[in-house]
Amino acid sequence: MRPRGILKQSRKPKQRSSESPKELPAGERVQKLLSAAGIGSRREVERWIREARLKVNGEVPAMGAKLTPKDRITLDGRPVRLHVPAVKELRVLLFHRSPGENLDMKAATSRAAEHLKLPRSSGRWLAIQPMPPVDGGLEILTDDGSWAHRVSQGAHALTIDYVLRMRGPLKQELVEEFRAATDCEGEAMSVLQAEAKFGAGFNHWLTVTVRATRSAQVRHWFAARGIIVSRLMRVRFGPVHLGHDLPRGHSRALLASERNALMNEIDAAKPSLPAPDIA
Question: pLDDT, tens digit, for every residue of 10-26?
Answer without folding.
Answer: 444 444 433 334 433 34
